[in-house]
Design a protein that fits this description.
Largest sheet: 2 strands, parallel
Strand content: under 5%
Distance between the termini: 37 Å
Protein name: Ferritin-like domain-containing protein
Order of helices and strands: HHHEHEHHHHEEH
Helix content: 40-55%
Pfam families: Ferritin_2
Region (Disordered): 46-65
Strand order of the largest sheet: 1-2
C-alpha cells in the first residue's frame, strides 16, 4: 500500500495546484481593478518566494442518510471505478496503491493484483502521472466523504500487465498484441498512456451517462466537476498519444484498436473513437475529444461501462479489471 508520507505527497500536489489557482485569480482580480497603467502580467510577476500553499480544504460531508437511495448507488458505482483508476495511476507514479484507510467500507474488501512504478523517460509524462494520481486519490476521498458509512469497500482489482492480467486480456481482445502476447502498461511511457486511455475514456463516459440519474443538486454539481477533471485527463492522454504517434504511428494504430474493442464490448452503437486524424472541411484535424455531431461527449450506461470493465460483451457480474465484481447494488453488465 502507499505509505503515509507518499499519501501526503499525493494530496499536497492537488492542494498546491488549487492554491496556485486561487492565488492567480486573486492577483488577476486585483490587476483588473487597478489603474490603466498596471497589467495582469505585471501583477503575476510579483516576487513571492515566501509563498506557501494552503492546506487542502476539507470537504463538507453530505450524510448518506440524506441522499436518495439512487444517488447512493450512483456514487458507489463511481467509487468502484475511482478505486480502479486511483490504483492504476498511483502505482505508476509512486510505486504503491491506495492506503488501506481509503479502501474499507461495506462489502468484501479486495486486494490489488499487479501494479508497479513506471520508469518514465519523459519528465513531463512523469509529472502528468503524479498530477493524475493526486486527482484520482482526491476523488476517492471525496466520494467516500459524501457517502459516509454507506461507502463501499474497494473490490478486488486486477491491473496486472502479465500473461493473466486484465491489461493483457484487453490488449489481446483489441489485437494490440497477439493471442499469446502480453501487454505491460508499466513497461514504458507509451504503454502507460495506452493503459490510461483505455480506463480514463471510459470514466468520462461513465460520469456523463450517470448524470441524469442523480437527484441531489449538490451531488450533481460535484459529479459534473469530477467529470470535467476526468475529461482533462482523457484529453491530455489522447493528446500525448496523438503527438507521440507522429513519430510512432503504431501508437495511433493501437489506440484506435482499443477504441474499436471497447465499441465491440459495450453496445451495438459505434460511438467510441480512436485518435487518428479526421478530415474537416477538406483539412486534416486531430481527434482528441470523442464527441457526437453536436460536439457533446457521449455517455455510457452502467451496464455498458461494466461490459468494458469486465471485458465481456455479455450480461455478467465479474471479470476483467474486477475479478470478483463491484461492491454495491450496481454490479451487472448488459448483453449487447
Amino acid at each position: 500500500m502507499i505509505d503515509r508520507e507518499t499519501l501526503l505527497e499525493v494530496f499536497d500536489i492537488a492542494a498546491q495546484r488549487r492554491s496556485e489557482r486561487r492565488r492567480f485569480m486573486k492577483i488577476a482580480g486585483t490587476a483588473l481593478a487597478a489603474t490603466a497603467g498596471s497589467t495582469m502580467l505585471a501583477a503575476c510577476g510579483d516576487d513571492d518566494d515566501d509563498y506557501q500553499p494552503a492546506p487542502a480544504p476539507t470537504a463538507t460531508p453530505t450524510p448518506s442518510a440524506s441522499l436518495p437511495a439512487g444517488d447512493v448507488d450512483v456514487l458507489n458505482f463511481a467509487l468502484n471505478l475511482e478505486y480502479l483508476e486511483a490504483n492504476y495511476y498511483t502505482f505508476a507514479a509512486f510505486g504503491s496503491g491506495l492506503n488501506d484507510a481509503f479502501t474499507d467500507g461495506t462489502g468484501a474488501r479486495g486486494g490489488v493484483i499487479g501494479g508497479r512504478r513506471v520508469a518514465f523517460t519523459d519528465a513531463s509524462v512523469a509529472a502528468y502521472a503524479r498530477e493524475i494520481a493526486a486527482d484520482e486519490n482526491a476523488h476517492v476521498s471525496f466520494l467516500r466523504q459524501q457517502l459516509g458509512s454507506a461507502a463501499v469497500a474497494q473490490p478486488a482489482i486486477n491491473i496486472d500487465g502479465g500473461a493473466t492480467g486484465a491489461f493483457t486480456a484487453a490488449a489481446r481482445a483489441a489485437g494490440v498484441v497477439d493471442a499469446n502476447g502480453t501487454f505491460d502498461p508499466y513497461a514504458s511511457d507509451e504503454n502507460w498512456l495506452l493503459g490510461g486511455m483505455l480506463l480514463t475514456d471510459v470514466g468520462v463516459t461513465a460520469y456523463k451517462g450517470s448524470a441524469s440519474k442523480i437527484a441531489n443538486k449538490v451531488i450533481l454539481e460535484a459529479a459534473a466537476g469530477i467529470l470535467a477533471v476526468e475529461a482533462y485527463h482523457s484529453g491530455l492522454i489522447r493528446t500525448l498519444l496523438y503527438r507521440k504517434g507522429l513519430a510512432l504511428p503504431i501508437l495511433r494504430t493501437n489506440a484506435d484498436k482499443i477504441s474499436d474493442a471497447r465499441d465491440a464490448l459495450d453496445n451495438s452503437v459505434d460511438d467510441d473513437q480512436g485518435i487518428s486524424p479526421v478530415t474537416i472541411n477538406g483539412g486534416l484535424a486531430s481527434n482528441i475529444v470523442p464527441t457526437d455531431s453536436d460536439g457533446i461527449v457521449f455517455g455510457r450506461t452502467p451496464g455498458d461501462v461494466l461490459n468494458i470493465a469486465y471485458l465481456n460483451a455479455g450480461a455478467v457480474t465479474s471479470g476483467g479489471f474486477f475479478p470478483a465484481g463491484l461492491n454495491g447494488n450496481v454490479r451487472g453488465s448488459t448483453a449487447g
